[in-house]
Amino acid sequence: MAKYVMSNRRAGKFTDEAKMASRKSLETSFSQISNSVDVFGDKAKGETSRRTIFFMADPSEIESKREAFGPDVIIEPEIVHHKMLDNFSFDLMKAVPLDLVPAFRQEAADQRFLGTQRETVVTVRGNRRLLHGVEVLLFLSGPGGLRERVEQRTNSRGKARFKYASFFEVLGLVASPYGGFWPKMVRGGGSRIDVDCAPLPNDGPSGWWHRIMGILYDPEYGMSSDGTRIGVGVIDSGYGPHPSLNGFNDCGAIIDGTELTDPNDGNDSGSHGTHVCGIIGGRHATDGFGGIAPAADLYSVRVFPANGGANQGDIADAIDLLSNDKSVHLINMSLGALSGSQIERDAIIDALERGTLCICAAANSAGQVEYPVAFPETVAISALGRLGKVPTDSFPAIPSNPDLFGNDQIYAADFTCFGREIICGGGGVGIISTVPERHGYEKPYAAMNGTSMASPAVCAALAILLSKDDAYMSMGMNKARAKYARSLLTAKCKDVGLPREYQGRGVPFKNS
Prior knowledge:
The chain is built from eleven helices and 29 strands. It has helices at 16-31, 59-65, 106-112, 208-211, 272-281, 312-325, 342-353, 451-467, 470-473, 479-491, 500-503; strands spanning 2-8, 38-43, 52-57, 73-77, 80-83, 104-105, 117-126, 129-130, 135-141, 147-153, 159-165, 169-176, 184-187, 192-197, 231-236, 249-255, 258-260, 297-302, 310-311, 330-333, 335-336, 357-361, 379-386, 410-412, 422-427, 431-434, 445-448, 493-494, 507-508. The chain is an alpha/beta fold. The radius of gyration is 23 Å and the shape is globular. Strands 15, 16, 17, 18, 20, 22, 23, 24 and 25 form a nine-stranded mixed beta sheet that branches. A five-stranded mixed beta sheet has the order 6-10-9-12-13. It has three domains: 2-78, Alpha-Beta Plaits (2-Layer Sandwich); 94-197, Immunoglobulin-like, CATH 2.60.40.10; 208-508, 3-Layer(aba) Sandwich (Rossmann fold), CATH 3.40.50. The chain is 21% helix and 28% strand.
């Protein structure tokens, strides 16, 4: 049995009659398999909306009947999307933000590694005080090239205790404080490892990722008063709680076709979405770093469950909700997958036809861009860094290729994906933004890196440009409006001296 997502097309259906016919085609097609599948999700709001069905089925059964489905019906195996945070390898060359891909928990590791065990105790400090709630990833090397990692959070005494099979050696670790301090990499290790994390800078509310785009501080909004009248949607892991994000539009969650709208359903299932939202619209950041366009109207939809990735059906439904129901101008998606989904692309095109432009992270595998950013209807964003802005024992992400260093000490991050699809770049290394209030931390800010951070930075900059453009603001909700927004972004980019496949047209600059 495999997990499938089934949907009807909406792109190009400009009348209610056409939309209803598409839905009818889906219902007729699904009736041919409904008795042989196990449905666990079914989402549709009205007779002209997209219907998305989630079910388990025998692949041979689906393939045998696929040709009988109409052209308006899309059926796909589930495509799991991940958050666009910096990947890492076992050589510890890259750092690990707080809620990257799932690691083996200590309990699971204990069950796997039977027999004689070793123990490593990690103690984490910052400014000479013990830090609790620090996520510690311990990297292990075994015989025959075996690699594992185990994960723990430090207790109230700043300690994380690891047990593992005696045939493993410690390669090193990454300690990621929940807030206030830089993550730190440590190579090698033994039974006891002491880690001293450097404090984050307190020179906000603007950072280098603001200044390269000409964003100035405004005391009323905490950063810029530009961006008013622009609706920005975020499809991610949710947001908050964090006081700098109060007043945002919480659209709840969509998980496996079920729309969740109770209080707290839209809260962040990790920390990624909160960080993204803070980059766009963090407000009144007297104790940290503010958003680039805090005057914009921000709407958040959570599509990531507490554990695991998001699927294309929920992402498509979230796009529909934000574009059709909330009429946002821009949608940020800092997520991706190795294969493309036609269900997802249909939603992106449908949104484009209503004037909503999707801004997407390029991905972090140091290869060609992933999906959905590889679709030509999206705006692809790469990640840039700036020399001297991140401690060298944290996650500098500095490339080894000298061609990837540009003007004004800007470089293309070593993890960023690239390609002819890239439209522009944004700050994506050592970006400081909001994370949820957890583990006893109040108003926490943390540093992360990835195209996940670059995409919302560019999205927010575009919101500012659009809010100041009278021609754009007078346009109706149609494809011409989205095309105009895309052309305005490219026209306002400033070349930063990097190869085109890494920077696109450069970096959007407010005053260009």
